[in-house]
Design brief:
Number of strands of chain B: 14
Distance between the termini of chain B: 93 Å
Radius of gyration of chain A: 18 Å
Number of helices of chain B: 22
Strand order of the largest sheet of chain A: 6-7-8-3-9-10
Shape of chain A: globular
Helix content of chain B: 40-55%
Number of strands of chain A: 10
Oligomer: heterodimer
Largest interface: A-B, 50 and 43 residues
Structural class of chain A: alpha/beta
Number of helices of chain A: 9
Strand order of the largest sheet of chain B: 10-11-12-7-13-14
Strand content of chain A: 15-25%
Chain lengths: 263, 581
């Protein structure tokens, strides 16, 4: 049961309840830091091959959802389910092995390691045989990473580090990719290229349905998010207040502003 | 005579040593093992001057304290370059060198034999002769040191030290130069260690190298860590707890052959248990707001913030209008760079950039990732030095001035990745950006004025927090805030500098639409007051709507400049940046 006002949009599908082909299911998750509760009964699902966005103002709880999915924050109630397995009690490393990769906010890089070494660290996390072709793909999407392959990652600009962080997550060949604010630091051209690439990888024609990567995108930039997602959730003060398929950016922005005004 | 009473003077000495070490190792986070060396310098000075030179005890103590302070300042300077780890290793070296020097056969320290027969501490004819008289003098000394440290902890110096330990570069940008302040702190801390040494010499009457070995140095550090690094009461408590261990071992009358190893085992056990159970010590360090309200500081959490529509109370901001731009403001240039060049290991980041930034206007810089935008801001703000070219601030050449100097001249900036001071609350972050923090002095503002300036600083900081509509978050650790709010705190910290020229590196990145409109209003209002704003951002819509003048860069060079609408419809800009052509 969801509390908060659902201002329209489609109802969450009943079909995606706990079955094996759901890349991610957050079921009525409450989570927070110490005594401060940041998420209230959040229910979110991502199917394989689907790109799902979560938008909302600063402090809405987007990063907390990302951290809850990756395992940095444990829910105080509710379950986190991925590909039919309850991962609520698993730690970050175990979740990475199950194919859950997070690109944290701000695109952190391992300084002192070269760009290539950074990417290899990502690949080594799962040792998937899909890592090698994925590495090719990453270097093609972000030519600047190929150019700077041997350079210290600490010398990259902020935007380039963001590309590297996404690349590092991708070479692990994840089954669920969680992106926390990838737009930070990226030029419009690069952001567009990144989102198109992520969308293409998710909708990979060659893979079987269940094999496709699911993507959960936390984003401030509503226009960018709407351009790529299949479905979107609007988060306000830790609650999902709206859900829509093939969202219209103007309508979503309007909903965010309205929910801010109502508090 | 009660056994434990006889231990009180010794414990008072440990309190002096630990509380002063904690100022350096805890508050300033310069981990030092060398405190024991400066204690030795004090003890040997008193020993030599009283026994060989027949000086009066008090004068010998005074000179010993000064020598220790001097030694502390000079020996600490090389380690400052590296901070953290390097500083620790350097202090280790200092402790070893000092021990070797004490131990070497010479006429001053008397080598391994040491100096025996140090007279009882005396002033004129009055000498300390029994335990009660030692207690009557040593305990007040410890109390005075504790009070001085308490005063310092409530002063803006404490804030400045915590800020620069967290991020020296962001500290410099807030105008808090770290060098001189830290050298003074090292001198003060070592001077107190020297005092502890004099107390030791007077109490024991015998000075020999074994009392100042490296493991004794570690013991002082253990007191600080167990008690709670950065917390005055923690250090004092740790000193008493750890300092009591040898007394305890003596008390239970263990054979001397095993006593030493039992002591070591007890120290180790205490340390292990504390680090497992309470890593930040028995009394952890707290920021000011938490200190005041004793945990009652309500977890403001994610209470909703005021909607963006509320007009920011800009009139309340204590800004002195800087020279308002004349009617034909376009002719006045606030900041100008000429033919700037900068390479990093063969990669040319900036290749000949010349831009004149008009005063009282907002200039936007856009460009592809890796185009050199942040490097440009680094060169303008003095965080990095150009290989070639010049920067002029209102016609004044800046090439040689540091980031701190530029900040004092009136340049403020924010960082792409916020670089807020961790461990500081949102309020403290903004306070450290205030103009008066850049003129902070250890003795005048710390020991003399104590906390008297703080309410005023806090009031000013709150005005800026109010302006970015984050007043509700003031007591929260800045790094616990959502990213977008951290950006707003970063802006408030830069605004607090009261700078005439503000350089903002991606202020809108990760900030939601409501936050962007709050920021835009603030920036527009600043230019009304004659301030100049220069910003980099990828939020093209917000930038175009806000700025008066736009510069596009690519591959370290300017490719277009002028009216924002013209710049974003430039063919090269569209191709290299927007991806629309």
């Amino acid at each position: 049961m969801r509390s908060g006002s659902s201002t329209g949009g489609t109802k969450p599908e009943e079909s995606c309840e706990l079955d094996g082909d759901v890349a991610l299911q957050l079921a009525e998750v409450d989570a927070g830091y110490g005594k401060v509760e940041a998420l209230h009964e959040v229910t979110v699902s991502v199917r394989p091959g689907e790109v799902v966005g979560i938008v909302g103002a600063n402090g809405a709880g987007k990063s907390t959802i990302a951290k809850t999915v990756a395992g940095f924050v444990r829910p105080s109630s509710g379950r986190v389910i991925s590909h039919g397995v309850d991962v609520t009690e698993l730690n970050v490393r175990q979740r990475v092995r199950r194919g859950i990769s997070l690109v944290p906010e701000g695109g952190p890089a391992f300084r002192g390691l070269s760009v290539e070494e950074n990417l290899l660290v990502g690949a080594s996390a799962t040792a998937s045989d899909r890592s090698a072709p994925m590495l090719e793909q990453v270097l093609k999407t972000f030519p600047v990473l190929a150019e700077r392959r041997r350079q210290d990652a600490g010398l990259l600009s902020g935007g380039e580090r963001q590309m590297l962080a996404v690349g590092r997550a991708l070479v692990a060949a994840p089954r669920l990719l969680v992106l926390d604010e990838p737009s930070i630091g990226l030029s419009p051209l690069m952001l567009n290229r990144l989102l198109v690439q992520v969308g293409d990888l998710a909708r990979n024609e060659d893979a079987t349905d269940a094999d496709r990567m699911g993507v959960l995108l936390m984003e401030q930039n509503v226009i960018a998010a709407c351009s790529v997602v299949d479905r979107i959730y609007v988060l306000h003060l830790g609650r999902i207040v709206h859900e829509a398929a093939s969202p219209d950016p103007d309508e979503i922005s309007e909903i965010i502003l309205r929910s801010l005004g109502s508090t | 005579m009660n056994f434990w009473l006889t231990q009180v003077p010794l414990l008072a000495m440990y309190v002096v040593l630990a509380v002063s070490l904690d100022l350096l190792a805890g508050v300033a986070e310069l981990l030092s093992i060398a405190q024991i060396a400066f204690m030795g310098v004090g003890a040997y000075s008193v020993g030599y001057l009283t026994v060989t030179a027949h000086w009066p005890f008090l004068l010998a103590t005074l000179v010993g304290v000064l020598i220790a302070a001097l030694a502390g300042a000079i020996s600490g300077i090389p380690g400052l370059r590296g901070r953290g780890f390097i500083y620790g290793v350097m202090s280790f070296a200092v402790a070893i060198v000092a021990y070797t020097a004490f131990n070497a056969p010479n006429n001053i320290t008397n080598g391994a034999e040491g100096i025996a027969g140090v007279p009882l501490p005396s002033v004129g004819a009055a000498a300390l002769s029994d335990t009660w008289s030692f207690i009557a003098v040593y305990v007040p000394i410890a109390v005075v040191i504790v009070l001085l440290r308490w005063r310092l902890d409530r002063s803006p110096v404490n804030l400045a030290l915590r800020a620069i330990r967290s991020d020296p570069m962001a500290g410099a940008i807030s105008g808090i130069g770290s060098g001189r302040l830290l050298i003074k702190v090292m001198a003060l801390s070592a001077g107190c260690a020297g005092l502890g040494g004099a107390m030791f010499a007077g109490l024991i009457g015998f000075v020999d190298p074994s009392s100042f070995s490296v493991d004794q140095g570690f013991l002082l550090l253990v007191m600080v860590i167990v008690g709670g690094k950065g917390n005055l009461w923690g250090a004092a408590f740790g000193a008493i707890l750890i300092g009591s261990v040898p007394s305890l071992v003596t008390y239970v009358n263990l054979p001397s052959s095993t006593a030493g190893s039992i002591e070591q085992i007890i120290y180790a056990l205490i340390l292990i248990v504390i680090i497992r159970v309470r890593a930040s010590g028995i009394f952890p360090e707290r920021h000011w707001l938490k200190r005041e309200r004793r945990g009652a500081a309500a977890p403001v959490g994610m209470t909703p913030l005021a909607p963006a529509a509320a007009t920011p109370p800009l009139s309340a901001v204590p800004l002195d209008p800087v020279t308002p731009p004349p009617a034909n403001a376009d002719t006045v240039v606030a900041l100008e760079c000429k033919d700037l060049k900068k390479s990093f290991g063969g990669v040319k980041a900036i290749r000949g950039v010349s831009i004149a930034f008009p005063a009282g206007r907002i200039t936007g810089i856009i460009g592809a990732n890796g185009a050199g935008k942040t490097t440009l801001i680094d060169l303008l703000s003095g965080v990095q030095r150009p290989d070639e070219g010049s920067v002029e601030f209102f016609g004044q050449e800046l090439r040689r001035s540091s980031a701190v100097t530029r900040r004092r001249k009136g340049m403020g900036r924010t960082f792409q990745s916020t670089r807020l001071f961790h461990g500081l609350s949102a309020e403290e972050n903004v306070m450290s950006g205030l103009g008066s923090m850049s003129r902070i002095g250890l003795f005048r503002d710390g020991l003399w004025r104590g906390g008297r300036q703080v309410p005023r600083l806090r009031k000013h900081a709150n005005v800026y927090l109010e302006e970015v509509q984050l007043r509700a978050r003031l007591g929260m650790d800045a790094l616990d805030l959502p990213y977008g709010e951290q950006k707003l705190v970063g802006l408030a910290r830069a605004l607090a500098s009261d700078a005439s020229v503000l350089l903002l590196d991606e202020p809108f990145a990760g900030v939601s639409a409501d936050g962007v409109s709050v920021m835009s209003n603030i920036l527009r209002d600043l230019t009304q007051k004659g301030r100049t704003v220069i910003l980099i951002d990828h939020n093209v819509e917000a930038v175009v709507g806000l700025v008066d003048y736009m510069v596009a860069v690519d591959f370290g060079a300017v490719i277009a400049d002028g009216d924002p609408k013209d710049v974003i419809s430039d063919r090269r800009v569209m191709q290299s940046y927007l991806g629309t052509a």
